[in-house]
């Protein structure tokens, strides 16, 4: 199996300048390849330029511009061209499926924060020799950069990526390792119901409160964004020192919220995986759940629109994004796979409206957000607990129908 590791880098001042230049030059390569594809389609009889054609031009590009393109790893530049090729593949896939296409866009220097090295030893080298808490990674054109390795890397390193987050630099490794030994069986099964007020409720009647990291940081974020809005939009090289500090303040607050949300997701998922052999959850389509409502034209007044609840839906969408359901479920599946646990996604329809005692399903069974009262048998319970029970039962039916 493949596992990722992320470590903080400690570059010198000169190495930080080289890393910034590496990102800028890869960004320039990405934008140039995108421009070539646009021009070929518009002006050369709608000709499509593919990755193989652009990769074959790399030798000429490196020879023509040795100062900017020739000093970096050839394979990392190929990875940048592959990234563009994947963006176009996703664009055409969305066109065919009828989704919003989202044509690939040019990247600003501040939008291009990652350089990938497809193979350890080709333009980069992860030094696995222990140097106390500090390890090193060698990058072509940059040198040996110190890395704070806070945990051991198990297995053979396959790929290396360099990522910039604000003023910090990170190295991300993917390592191939043998499948770990599964955790001992507990004999426990559980269903979970995701929510806003409570991050999740399980079928045993337990609740995990919603952390609401974004809402807690909203006041500070608002103040920082107001301070940033006083400056006109400029390129990074043209910003004043105060403008740059305002940009970094906003980015730092967003980064803190993101890290707290990720930490909460890891800890919650780890607790579930350690305690239960089977975990059933709702198969949520989060993208559809957080869509803005469609406008309602007023037939009596052309050009006007009727109220459609957009303001209330915007608040709900912010709460859904703040909860981080998608990140949590991704982490849960990954941890369960490593621990030998089974995670089952079930259809979420009517899970909070179906009585777990008699099976009666009706909208009226849930008179409020929290309360469940069956109109047929009179069963009373918390609505989220009822949803988790129904999710668990559906998950067990799915497991018995499709044994591993």
What descriptors fit this protein?
404 residues; five-stranded mixed β-sheet; 11 helices; 16 strands; 42% helix; globular
Overall number of domains: 2
Strand content: 15-25%
General form: globular
Q: What class, by secondary structure content?
A: alpha+beta
Give the SSE order as H and E letters. EHHHHEEEEEEEEEHHHEHEEHHEEEH
Q: How many strands, which pairing sense, and closed or not: the largest β-sheet? A: 7 strands, antiparallel
Distance between the termini: 19 Å
Order of strands, main sheet, comes to: 2-6-7-1-5-4-3
Number of helices: 11
Low-confidence stretches: none
Helical content (DSSP H or I, runs of 4+): 40-55%
| Alpha carbon gyration radius | 26 Å
Give the integer mean of the pLDDT values. 91
Instruction: Tell me the total number of β-strands.
Output: 16
Report on the structure:
The structure is a single chain. The chain is of the alpha+beta class. The protein has 2 domains: 2-176, no CATH class; 189-401, no CATH class. 42% of the residues lie in helices and 20% in strands. It is built from 11 helices and 16 strands. A hairpin with a 2-residue loop joins strand 6 (156-165) and strand 7 (168-176). It is globular and about 80 Å long. The mean pLDDT is 91.
